[in-house]
Structure formats: structure tokens, C-alpha cells
Amino acid sequence: MTDTVTSNKIVALTGASGFVGQSLLQNLIAAGHKVRVLVRNPQTFQQPPLLDNNQLEVIQGSLQPGPHLDQLLLGVTALIHCAGRVRGEVYSEFEKDNVHGTMALVDACKQSQTIVHFIQISSLASRQPQLSHYSKSKYEAEQYIQNNYPGPWSIIRPPAIYGGHDQEMRPVFDWMQRGILWLPCKADNRFSLIHINDLAQLIVSHSLNQLSLHKVIEPDDGHENGYSWHDIRSMGSTIFRRQIRMLALPALLLETAARVNVVICRILGKSPMLTPEKLSELRFSNWVAAPERAAENWIAEIPLNQGILSIYK
Predict the structure, then answer these.
(1) What domains can you pick out in the chain, each with its CATH number?
(2) How far apart are CA 45 and CA 75, in angstroms?
(3) Cys staple from 227: which of 150, 209, 216, 231, with CB 3.0 to 4.6 Å?
(4) pTM (predicted TM-score)
(5) What is the pLDDT of residues 25-58, one digit of tens each?
(6) How far is CA 260 from the centre of its chain?
């Protein structure tokens, strides 16, 4: 193991308990940064193995305004805002966390005694705010940063993320292993992908060094013009060494499942992932990262075939 030199800079991180946040935290620590995380419940927060016990500080609190945000930002040089709501039934749920939470952080950064580089982890969905409550909330959060934060900012819009402890894309690959590729939309729809390790590396080594100031970045794995489902099937056939059938999920079945899921979650007091609005996102024809918004002087290291193979090692 190579020795890691701890930086004098402090990086604040929200959403450290989530899929992307966990990977970011591990990469930040491995890179030698001191990290201060904001979590709701420190007792249940799973800390990664630390290279230096002085590298991690945990602050208890939410994204609501309060002294905990001042404590989070005390002396920091950068804030990576990764926290956000991805599940919900009504817009007000997404607005509270994704919009108002971002606004509270922006306002706290403006009051900070240090100049804070605000790094917003957004989503490609923000390009189409009319599609869903989630996409609208991410768009509104981006707009607030760009229009109200006078300090340095960067906005990262990842495409579909896979790898690591991913629970969203993994079932697609698992089914391909069995010889079936379920289609939630048209087979010709196009989309970009990025491995979680590449995304974390981009944020830690590129954006954190202020190489993307006042820019909206749409990173991907470098595959030109993204993928169609035909491409995914072809690659899956090569990786798993078998024929794979593409089977379209009937629109009526998906719509019924979404409505039923909303009702069940409402009864159980849970937040639904599959909703009619989410189906609008899944069915959109072009989720390809825009080449003109690529991160300058940065290239992803993990191609899709290598990334899929790594999941099953």
C-alpha cells in the first residue's frame, strides 16, 4: 500500500450514506483528503476503513437550515452535495430535499468565512424537467445554484450509474446472464452509462481541483453517442457467452404496476421508486451525455464490458 498524505484542506460531503456518496467518501479518503460528512443518524452511518483516523468527521443534521450547516462548512474549501431524494409520489417531497435542501446549503456557503467550491451532483434527468417530479426538482436546484451562488460552482450530471453496490442496473445484467433483456422502452432509445468508480474519480480528481468551474458537466464512459438496447444485448452475449432475447415489457403492464406500487407504498408509508412519472423518464428516447458538456482533459477508464465483468468477480 502506498502512503497517503493527508491534505490540509477539508471537504464537506452530503449524502455519504448513499450509493454514490459511499464511493465518493472512500475515494476522498484514499486521496488523502480530510472529509466532514453530514448524516441524519451517526449511529447507523457505516464508516469506510480509514487510512488516518483524523480524516473523517461526522456532523449530525439534515439539509434544513440550522447551526449544523455552519458546523459542516466551517473551514471547508469544497462542498460535494450528493444528498437527494430519488423516491417519492408528489413534487413537494422532492422539492423539500432536492430544491430547498440545495437552497439551504447555497445560502450557508454564502455566509461561510471561507470561499467554498460548491459541487452539485445532479442528474441528466434535469435536462427534461417536464418528465417527472424528480427531474423538475434537480433542474430547479441547478437553476438556484447558477443564479444565486456568487462563489465557484460545478454541476455534474451523471447518466445511468452502475457498478459497486448498485441496485438499479444490476438486475439488468443478472437477467442477461439468464438469457433475457427486459425492455422498459423502445429498443432504439439511446443512453449513456458510467461506472461508479469513474464518476467518483472524476469528482475527486477533476472537479475538486476546480477544473470545471461555472460549468455543467455531463460525463460518460467515453462510448460515442451512448448505447441502444441492441448494443447492450450484443455486449451481454459476448460477455456471458450466450444468446440473449430482448423482451419488451407491455406498456399497460408497466403503467398498472406503477400505479399499484404507488398505492401499496402509500398504505405502507413508504416512498415509491416506480411511479407513472418515473416511467416517463425511462421511456425518454435520448439520455446521451452531450459531447459539448464533457469534462475537459478527463477520460473514463472503465469501458462497459470491463465494468460488467468486474461485477461478477
Answers:
(1) 10-166+193-222+289-301 (3.40.50.720)
(2) 23
(3) 231
(4) 0.92
(5) 999 998 889 999 999 988 888 777 766 668 999 9
(6) 27
